Amino acid sequence: MRTLRTLLTFFLITCLQAGAQDLAHYKRALKELAAAKYQGRGYAKGGANKAGAFLEKEYEKAGVDEVVRQPFTLDIQTFAGKMQMWADGKKLTAGIDFSMREYSPGVKGEFPIYHVDTLRFDADRMFRDLEKPEYKDCLVACEFWFTYKHREAFGRLQKAGECPNAGLIYTWPSPIKFFKAYGHRVVDKPIVWVTPEAIEGVQRVRLNVDAKFMKAYECFNVISKVEGERHDSCFVFTAHYDHVGNLGKKVFYAGANDNASGSAALVTLAAYYAKHRPKYDIYFLAFSGEDANLRGSTYFVEHPTFPLERIKYLFNIDMIGDNNPILYCEVSDAGMEAFPLFEKINSERQYFKALNRGDLAANSDHYVFATRGVPCIFLENEKGDAYQYYHTILDNYKHAVFDSYEPLFRLVRDVVEQYK
């Protein structure tokens, strides 16, 4: 009988632990957010706001005590119209062979190509070459990191009146990426991302690219709350639900890992705490505008809906849809006091092989809280099988990876339970 009771107790404990996080719910929410109807959760086709409305309903279904919108606006360059490119007459594929720099204007026309000699690079010689008749109104093609290393010279090529080139081509290895962080401004000349294979040896290109600058575009953060036994302090979970949106009429970036994965985790965490009431209030902040240079979280810290001083600890969950056994972290100065607790719990329960703490950077929404003295941690499962698809059209549900969700859920749950 004692053996039977022991087995039943073990079974019940196992079931409770397994039910603490809901993988099926997580997958459903992630799949929904990566669906075509949200068009990459960008701005040109309203995808971000549609995703925010979906999250509102999910929080309400979860049984939280409060769900509110926090409106804000942003300026953003978008590319949801024509998106065509030909290299020496060969048509290239948007999102595969080429994309646009986020702050590029639209561009239409045919252009000669000037290939930069990176082995014998001389900026003055390049500028002299561009004055030659054969390179009139050319596009200057060069490997991106080389242009970054020589950004003073290449920065001149972006400005009207500085040099006679019509624009630039940055080469980037396949799969080609698309970014949005600095899309709040537009430079004078077009800048195109192209794979090295697509532009190698090419003499002329033709482009037909539409762009639309959206000024004061209306977005919103979704703020939900589960009330705890005490209201003098709170824990906060954050994730951004926006992504980079469209590249032309047909191509969109689903962003399954970035960051449908983190947004789906917030939904299941909210559902868990609505059923298992915490000691302290817990807020779930789903931000828009992260991929547009942390605009939603910046607005929140400038217009907080509760005092930032009340935050005991903030967990920013971003890009956890991967299978690296080592979890990447960034911790604010104020958050370092509690970091040994993360390491202790992880070491005892072996959720991850290790926690790899990197330098604090302005790479996600935790940063704006960190600079204001909030104890916080950034949690990202990077450089597994899914990482290669980051900011590409292949970051979709087909390539979604779910390995890190359950251990991350348990880690943050245990930290909340044991945090003093």
Give a structural overview.
The two termini are 40 Å apart. The model is unreliable at 1-19 (pLDDT under 50). Helix 2 packs across helix 8, helix 3 packs parallel to helix 8 (256-275) and helix 10 (339-349) crosses helix 12 (405-418). Strand 5, helix 4 and strand 6 (139-143) form a beta-alpha-beta unit. The chain has an 8-stranded mixed sheet with strand order 1-10-14-11-15-18-16-17, with helices on both faces. The chain has an 8-stranded mixed sheet with strand order 3-2-9-5-6-7-8-4. It has a two-stranded antiparallel sheet with strand order 12-13. With 420 residues, it is of the alpha/beta class. The longest helix is centred in the middle third of the chain and has 20 residues, at 256-275. The protein has helices spanning 2-19, 23-33, 47-62, 123-129, 144-149, 151-156, 196-199, 256-275, 295-302, 339-349, 366-370, 405-418; strands at residues 66-78, 83-87, 90-91, 98-100, 107-115, 139-143, 167-171, 191-194, 204-209, 212-226, 230-240, 246-247, 251-252, 280-287, 311-317, 326-331, 354-358, 376-380.
Q: Would you tell me the overall average pLDDT?
A: 94
Contiguous uncertain segments of 5+ residues? 1-19
Largest sheet: 8 strands, mixed
User: Helical segment tally?
Assistant: 12
Q: In percent terms, what proportion of residues is strand?
A: 25-35%
The Rg value, from CA coordinates, equals 24 Å
Helix share, percent = 25-40%
* DSSP strand tally: 18
Distance between the termini: 40 Å
Which strand order spans the largest sheet, edge to edge or round the barrel?
A: 1-10-14-11-15-18-16-17
Shape: elongated
Structural class: alpha/beta
Which H/E pattern describes the elements?
HHHEEEEEHEHHEEHEEEEEHEHEEHEHEH
